[in-house]
Amino acid sequence: MLPLLVVTRPQPDATLWAQQLQAAGVPSHCLPLMEIGPSRSPAAQAALACALQQLDTYNALMFVSGNAVRYFADQLQTTHRAWPAQARIWTPGPGTTKALLAAGVPLSQIDQPAADAAQFDSESLWAQIQTQVRAGQRVLIVRGGDGQDAAGRGRVWLTEQLQRQGVQVDFAPVYERHPPADGTGLLQDIAALRAQNALWLFSSSESVQHLRWSNPAWSWQAHTALATHPRIAEQARDAGFGTVIDTPPTVQGIVASIKSLHDLP
Q: Quick one: which of 35, 176, 196, 211 has the fewest CB in 10 Å?
């Protein structure tokens, strides 16, 4: 029998992933270690409003995550705007692509990493889109913000590549990340999962840090983390996890990674 897997993604993704993993035979438990909400700072809201007013001037829109898609789609609905038909829609991986399809974007308009890419990230996306990039184009990157920086965070590498090609890059921060609500309930859940020697699935560096800060006295040397990107894996090692497994950010990839730990077919 496979060990319990703790899904640390924010909601609603945590429940969706847990359901898919359960259906694939992996016992799963939701413990969101990050909360997502709409951008609230005046600077972020002003940057988003400006981008929406210029939506038809962009050659491409890049969405960094499914949350970026969902919160942007909410803004389109609120402002009675349609998805820009003239723009290519860029995505770093299958989860974001699925969110775009659910929001009504046709697959023919979407560019994404190759299905057999080693990682689903900006670098793999760039391999697919760089031939369509031209000087003088405009690209909007839709991503998260921290409440202070109107540009938000994420995809710095891709921004640099675009700017080197003479592309104007704008940013639309549509959501904010927050630590999970403090409370004895969260600590009790973490303590119980530690006692079960559960596996921890991380899809963001922030979730690793929030777990680490929940009780700095806890050691994670005897525990195992699965990380969906090398940068996240590095954070898990820094947090003290004794075993860190790089895994593709897909249900099939995660199941295969867990089985490999136990030499299961």
A: 196
Query: Dihedrals φ, ψ of 73, to 5°?
Result: -60, -40
Residue with tokens 């299905």: 115
Closest by Cα among 35, 20, 143, 39 to 92: 143
Q: Tokens 């990230």 sit at which residue? A: 121
Architecture of the domain spanning 37-178: 3-Layer(aba) Sandwich (3.40)
- d(CA 139, CA 214) in angstroms, rounded, equals 38
Topology of 5-34+180-261 in CATH? Rossmann fold (3.40.50)
- Report which residue type is found at 7: V
CA distance 128 to 236: 30
Hey, how many other C-beta atoms are within 10 angstroms of the C-beta on 212? Answer: 18
Give the Cα-Cα-Cα angle 217, 219, 220 (nearest 5 degrees): 140
**What pLDDT does 112 receive?**
96
**Mean of per-residue pLDDT scores for the chain:** 91
Q: Give residue 120's pLDDT.
A: 79
Look up residue 178 and give its DSSP letter: E
Query: Under a CB-based contact definition with an 8 Å cutoff, are residues 72 and 149 in contact?
Result: no
- E runs forming strands in 130-190: 138-145, 168-178
**Model confidence band, residue 244 (pLDDT cutoffs 50, 70, 90):** very high
Structural domain spans, the chain = 5-34+180-261, 37-178
